[in-house]
């Protein structure tokens, strides 16, 4: 598995949320390539090099997956489970980015292996703040597999 690239996979069916997320990343100088999947099956096709993405090297995994829960064709929890069930994608950071505040969605996401659960605010400015925080932590602070070792403890 290679985590050397810095691609982000955004799995979001709502065009307005897609646009807001992409705009926020661009305005905050995130230079990472962002691949957008409009539903759960499209996300899995991209990740595993099948369907419309047949021939794509499935070992070339994204640095981060931003995953909505309420998706057509295959919901986010099932996508997350399939990501965690495959050795190629098992360690890819997955952040649930959803409008759901249902406790069962939070629990199911974390039990299925999500690294984080972030609720999309309804307010535009708060949404931008949330995406900025995600960018800072997951793209700048988080140490991916294969990166520099953590500092030694005294």
List the helices and strands and how they pair.
Layout: E1 8-11, H1 15-27, E2 34-37, H2 40-48, E3 64-67, H3 76-85, E4 94-98, H4 103-111, E5 116-119, H5 124-141
Parallel strand pairs: 1-2, 1-3, 3-4, 4-5
Structural class: alpha/beta
Q: How much beta, percentage-wise?
A: 5-15%
- The name of the CATH superfamily reads Response regulator
Total of DSSP H or I helical runs spanning 4+ residues: 5
Give average pLDDT, whole number.
83
Major sheet summary line: 5 strands, parallel
Strand order of the largest sheet: 2-1-3-4-5
Please write the CATH class name.
Answer: Alpha Beta
Distance between the termini: 32 Å
CATH architecture: 3-Layer(aba) Sandwich
- CATH-derived topology: Rossmann fold
């Amino acid at each position: 598995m290679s985590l050397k690239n810095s691609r982000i996979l955004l799995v979001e069916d709502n065009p307005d949320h897609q646009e807001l997320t992409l705009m926020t990343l661009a305005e905050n100088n995130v230079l990472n390539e962002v691949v957008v999947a409009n539903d759960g099956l499209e996300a899995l096709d991209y990740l595993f090099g099948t369907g419309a993405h047949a021939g794509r090297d499935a070992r070339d995994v994204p640095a981060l997956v931003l995953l909505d829960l309420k998706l057509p064709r295959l919901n986010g929890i099932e996508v997350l489970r399939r990501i965690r069930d495959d050795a190629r994608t098992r360690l890819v950071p997955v952040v649930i980015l959803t409008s759901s505040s249902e406790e069962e969605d939070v629990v199911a996401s974390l039990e299925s292996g999500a690294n984080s659960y972030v609720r999309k605010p309804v307010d535009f400015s708060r949404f931008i703040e949330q995406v900025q925080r995600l960018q800072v932590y997951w793209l700048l602070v988080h140490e991916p597999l294969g990166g520099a070792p953590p500092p030694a403890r005294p």
